[in-house]
Design brief:
alpha/beta, 23 helices
């Protein structure tokens, strides 16, 4: 049995699962030459027209640019620059409606052509003498991406380093209406073959397989003629069947190889490029002509002249339709792409981009709008038509349920969105739309998961770095500590350091807050303070009592008795007590002298045996009342004295009184009364001295002495100033009364 390569050389073809046969309708455009579209008034150039990232802007608003000049730079392997399709001025750089099913706005450069179509300087290359890196750089700098619809950067596919068995040029163009590649092969087959030569120089494949459907006989003949001088270039005519132009389906048709799930054609030694991409590569390398324009099929029954036009990139769709005689109808739909995989445009300002191969403007009868979606009847027609051997019915259920795990399990990623399932569905279910939404959700989830993984990796790397730095720090500290310890051991300073540490610890223990000490210590300290306070109070009370006793004894003429314990306990208190005693003795002596003087001045009145004043029958009633009050006070004092001491102290006729201790104590209890009594006694004595010779009422000197001697020492002891003031007031009153009586 011949091998695979021998079978391919022999022209054997295989088949793939599923597929449909919709009406081709290519007759409208495949019999007409390519028309050149005039330069429009405005060109709208999205910064990203491929799979990948947008390049960095190289121009500013208001800047004039030349034809072929780069507008963005390729600063990333997945970046493909865009170029100025003609000379003109950059009017604006702003978001604009994108040529995408979502119709989301993308950053777009607005160029105003000047009509001169002035080229920049060009530098063609000889690919036979150039190295591969120069060729790949020229392909990337020329902005070439896959022109079959996917838009994958061409320089990445062409720069594979792994072995390649087959280079497949896709010229099938299986979708209805589209005939752009057909006309390109009819008019530029030689240039296409030169582009294939450049790809073979980069990839060095064993064979080149050019697949063309059998409904393009003119194009197939042109390609065979162009390849007649090339060895191992094989043009293969495949049956017309949709979607035989799919990458995996065409590989299976031409080589009988299947791309494994989740893998790429390069993994099985196959690289596929579109015929339009090969043409753009030849222009970029041989003529230094970047990708500035492409052939677009403009078809539909609303057009007077449907045809293929060569349109500059950035040309609004409205300009294409106007050039072909567009006649709009109510609720007119305009579709970018073919009727199977295309999408309806939101407005006609959407521009032509690198992946735009067809613009349709059909009537409502030509392409009826989708009717109301109905329930699935489980007819399995979608599964029979699926070219990827999937189960569209299950994928529909899981797409509605947003079950990502099940969608991955049923290989949603292998869906090529050809629309064959929706085409055969009797329930008019837009299956492809559900799959597109589900794919977008999964991509977003994967993007978020990737961000989370990257954030986790950064976090773990940071923690590892911090931990390593911590360990290095600890290691350095340990080394330094060991070095210091060795140095201290060598210098004999170990003991001093230990003592210093002990002192620091002791100071910290002393300075510890109260709440860190034990409860027993706190209670013991409180009890000790209470005992000290009580002892201090008792000692103070004892000292005050002894001082009072000493003062009383001194006033009574007794020597002061200071206990030795008091002197020894508090020398300062003893000194104060001695000073007070001396002051009291001095004042007592003065009071005694004053009392003796008053006794010498006063005449001795007549007294009875009880030392009571003798009052005549002619006495003044006021004086009699005073004498009676004095007598009652004396009687009361004597009764108190007798009750306390059970002894009596008789008054002498001279007025001298042997004062008992009880009297002194009573006077000490109420010094004010004693002072008043003394003052009254002195006043009586003075009045006795001024008595008239007529023999009126007189108070005896004995009574005055008794009244004066009740407790004079107590007054001096307690507050001598107050006693003196009271005595002075009493004398003044007595003198005033005496003057009033004399007058």
């Amino acid at each position: 049995m011949p091998g695979l390569f021998q079978q391919i050389q022999a022209g054997k073809l295989w088949d793939f699962h599923g597929g449909i046969h919709p009406p081709g309708r290519k007759e409208q455009t495949n019999q007409k030459p390519i028309a050149v579209l005039p330069i429009p008034d405005r060109l709208y150039l999205p910064l990203r027209q491929h799979i990948g990232v947008a390049g960095q802007l190289l121009v500013r608003v208001g800047e004039r640019v030349l034809k072929g000049q780069q507008l963005t730079g390729a600063d990333n392997s997945m970046a493909v620059p865009i170029h100025a399709p003609t000379s003109g001025t950059v009017l604006n750089i702003t978001p604009h409606t994108s040529p995408h099913p979502s119709a989301l706005p993308e950053l777009t450069l607005v160029l105003e052509p000047d009509g001169l179509d002035e080229w920049r300087q060009r530098e063609p290359l000889n690919f036979l003498t150039c190295d591969n890196m120069t060729l790949l750089s020229r392909i990337q700098d020329s902005g070439i991406a896959g022109m079959g619809g996917a838009g994958f950067p061409t320089h990445i596919k062409a720069g594979l380093t792994q072995p390649v068995d087959y280079l497949i040029i896709n010229a099938v163009e299986c979708e209805p209406y589209i005939s752009a590649d057909d006309l390109l092969m009819q008019e530029a087959a030689t240039t296409i073959v030169k582009g294939i030569d450049i790809l073979c120089r980069l990839l060095n494949p064993k064979a080149v397989l050019i697949g063309i459907e059998d409904d393009k006989p003119i194009a197939a003949a042109a390609m065979m003629a162009a390849c007649s001088q090339r060895e191992h270039y094989y043009v293969r005519i495949v049956p017309t069947k949709y979607p035989s132009g799919g990458e995996k389906q065409l590989i299976q048709l031409l080589t009988n190889k299947e791309v494994p799930n989740g893998r790429r054609p390069a993994d099985i030694g196959i690289v596929m490029q579109n015929v339009g991409t090969a043409f753009a590569i030849a222009q970029a390398v041989l003529d230094d002509h970047p990708l500035l324009s492409r052939i677009v099929t403009v078809a539909g029954d609303t057009l007077n002249q449907p045809q293929n036009v060569l349109a500059l990139l950035g040309t609004p769709v409205s300009a294409l339709l106007d050039a072909c005689g567009f006649q709009s109808q109510p609720q007119q739909r305009v579709i970018m792409g073919g009727p199977m995989m295309g999408f309806t445009l939101p407005d006609l300002s959407v521009p032509v981009v690198k992946t735009t191969n067809c613009v349709l403007a059909p009537t409502a009868q030509e392409l009826p709008a989708a009717s109301t979606e109905m329930d699935c009847i489980r007819c399995s027609a979608c599964a029979d038509a699926c070219p990827a051997s999937l189960l569209p019915q299950q994928l529909l259920w899981y797409s509605k349920a947003k079950d990502s795990d099940k969608l991955n399990e049923y290989n949603l990623a292998d869906c090529i969105e050809c629309g064959a399932c929706a085409y055969v569905c009797p329930s008019e279910i837009p299956l492809v739309q559900y799959y597109r939404v589900a794919k977008a959700d999964i991509r977003e989830q994967q993007r978020e998961a990737l961000k989370a993984e990257q954030a986790k990796a950064r976090f773990e790397a940071r923690n590892a770095r911090l931990e390593q730095e911590k360990q290095e720090r600890q290691q350095r500290n340990q080394q330094l500590a060991a070095a210091r310890q060795q140095q201290q051991l060598a210098s004999g300073a170990n003991t001093a350091v230990a003592d210093a540490l002990a002192r620091i610890k002791a100071k910290q223990a002393q300075a510890a807050p109260a709440d860190e000490r034990s409860k027993e210590q706190i209670l013991a300290e409180r009890e000790l303070k209470k005992q000290q306070a009580r002892a201090h109070q008792q000692q103070k009370a004892q000292q005050q009592k002894e001082q009072q006793q000493n003062a009383q004894q001194q006033a009574a003429g007794q020597p002061e008795q200071m206990p030795a314990a008091t002197v020894n306990t508090d020398s300062k208190a003893a000194a104060v007590a001695a000073a007070i005693a001396r002051a009291q003795a001095k004042k007592a002596a003065q009071a005694t002298e004053q009392h003796a003087t008053e006794q010498q001045v006063m005449p001795a009145p007549g007294t009875d045996k009880n030392n009571e004043a003798v009052v005549s029958a002619e006495t003044d009633p006021r004086k009699a009342a005073i004498a009676a009050a004095i007598a009652r006070a004396k009687a009361k004092q004597q009764a108190q004295t007798e009750n306390e001491n059970d002894t009596s102290a008789p008054l002498t006729t001279a007025g001298a009184v042997n004062k008992p201790a009880a009297v002194s104590d009573a006077a000490a209890e109420d010094p004010r009364k004693a002072a008043v009594a003394a003052a009254l006694a002195r006043a009586k004595a003075k009045k006795q001295a001024n008595v008239e010779p007529s023999g009126q009422t007189a108070v005896s000197a004995t009574d005055a002495a008794v009244a004066d001697a009740v407790v004079p020492e107590a007054v001096v002891t307690e507050d001598p100033r107050k006693a003196a003031i009271a005595a002075a007031i009493a004398r003044a009153k007595a003198r005033k009364q005496a003057d009033s009586e004399n007058s």
